[in-house]
Amino acid sequence: MDQAIVENVNRVADEKDYTLLTSLLDALRPFLNPDQSPDARDFWDALTADCRVLAEQRLLKGEMNSLWGVTPIVNLRECVAADRALGSNAHSLVFTTYHISSNFDFVCSEVQARLVAERGEDWFLFRWLMLIWALVNFDIFHLYNDRGIIEPAGGYGSRRFGIAVREMEIYRRAGKRLYTYAYGADHRTREKTLALGKWNFCSECPDPGVYCVCDDAGGAAMLKVIREYSTAVVAHGLAMKLIPGARNVPYLTVDVSKFSPRRSWSQSDGKLVVGHFPNHGYFKGTKYLEGAIQALQTDGHAVELLLLSGKPHHEILEAMQKIDILVDQLISGSFGLTAVEAMASGCPVVCYLHDGVAVADRESCPVIEANPDTIKDALHQLISDRTRLSKAGAAGPEYVRKNYSVEALGTHLADLYLETADLPKALNARLAERAKSLNS
C-alpha cells in the first residue's frame, strides 16, 4: 500500500481539501473503480490484502476502529457514543445531511456537491476514494440497508435501496466486519406490512412505490443478499417482523444525560396540550389525531394541539418541555426515536403498538396505547386523569435508561461483537468487562 496515497486520502477526509481531492481523483482515475480494467482489479486486490493484514494486526493489539453511516439518522452520534463506551475508536460518516441534524464526525456533503457541480460524475469516483480511506482506517462497519459508501446503491432487487454488492464483497475480502441496520423505508415492503393488521404504515401511504422499498419480491431479494454478506443483520421494533434472520438490538438510542427533568403535572382541570411532531403525517396518523382534537374541542374540552413538522432537532426537544403529552404514531404499530426522546424527558407518550411488536421490555413500557379508532376516547380520559399522565411521565426516564440509553446500547453491542465478530480472546475479555461496567 503506497503510504503517500494513504496520507493524502486521510488529509482529504479530515480537511476536505478540494484541490488535493481533485488531484487525487485525476491521479488515481484509472484505478478507483475495480471493474474498469485489469490494472484496477490488481490495485484493489493488493489494497484489500493489505487492509486484511492491517485489520488483523489492529485487532490483535486490542484496537477496535468502527465506522457508522452513511444515512444521516439523527441518533447516529449516540450509536457512535455507545460503541466508544466499549473502547472502540468509532466515528460517523455521511455524504448528505437533513435539515433536522448535521452533527456527525465526517460530513462530505459540501465537497460532494461541489464535485457534482464542477466535475459531474467524478463524485462517483470520490466515493471510491472514500472507500479506500474507510478500508485503511476502520475494521468494523455499521451501515443501514439503504446504501453504503459507494454509489449507485441497490440494483439487486431494488433500484434505490441496498448497499452496493461490490462494496460488501470488498469488506469481506479485506477481513472487515459488516453490521447492517434497518431504519424504515430501507426494508418496508407493502404486502408484508399490510398483513400486519388494519393499521400499518402502508394503510395511509399516498403514493406506493415512492417512499419505501415496497416491492415484496424485490425487497426480499435485496435483504437476502445483504444478509449473505453481513456479519449480522440487526433490526428492532416492527423491522423484526419484516427482516428475516435479524437480531433484535434496541438502537433507538438517546443520551439520557442531555434531557432535562420535566415539571410535574397538576391535578387541575387545566388545558391539555398535545404535541405531535411528524415529518410525514400520513405515515403517523396525523389526520386522525387532528380529527380527535377538533371533536373534543367541539364537545367543550380544554385541549390544544401543538403540531410541528420539519423543524430542527433542538426545536422538537424544546417543544417537549411545553406539552403535556406526545402523540407519536397512531398507525405504524411501534414508536420511533421521537417517542424515546419524549420518554427520556419525562413526557408521557401515546402510540399504537402492534401485538408482539419487538420493543424493549414491553411489559414495563410506559407508552399509553391508542390507534385511530381509540385516540379520541384515550385523550378524553387523559384530560381528567392527570394522575395517569404523571405516572406515565415519571416511568419514562428509567425505562429509557434501562433500554434505549447509550449505556444500554453499549451492552447490546458488546454482546453482538462477542457472539458474531470472531475477535481475539483478549479483546473479547475487554468487551465483556466493559459491558459489565456499563450494565452496572
What does this structure look like?
The chain has helices spanning 3-15, 18-28, 38-60, 76-84, 109-119, 122-137, 165-173, 190-194, 216-229, 239-242, 281-284, 286-298, 313-320, 337-344, 375-384, 386-403, 406-420, 425-439; strands at residues 65-70, 89-94, 106-107, 140-144, 177-181, 232-235, 247-248, 272-276, 303-307, 325-327, 349-351, 368-369. The chain is globular and about 75 Å long. With 440 residues, it is of the alpha/beta class. It has a seven-stranded parallel beta sheet, with helices on both faces. Helix 7 (165-173) links the parallel strand 4 (140-144) and strand 5 (177-181).
Fold blueprint:
Blueprint: H1 3-15, H2 18-28, H3 38-60, E1 65-70, H4 76-84, E2 89-94, E3 106-107, H5 109-119, H6 122-137, E4 140-144, H7 165-173, E5 177-181, H8 190-194, H9 216-229, E6 232-235, H10 239-242, E7 247-248, E8 272-276, H11 281-284, H12 286-298, E9 303-307, H13 313-320, E10 325-327, H14 337-344, E11 349-351, E12 368-369, H15 375-384, H16 386-403, H17 406-420, H18 425-439
Parallel strand pairs: 1-2, 1-4, 2-3, 4-5, 5-6, 6-7, 8-9, 8-10, 10-11, 11-12
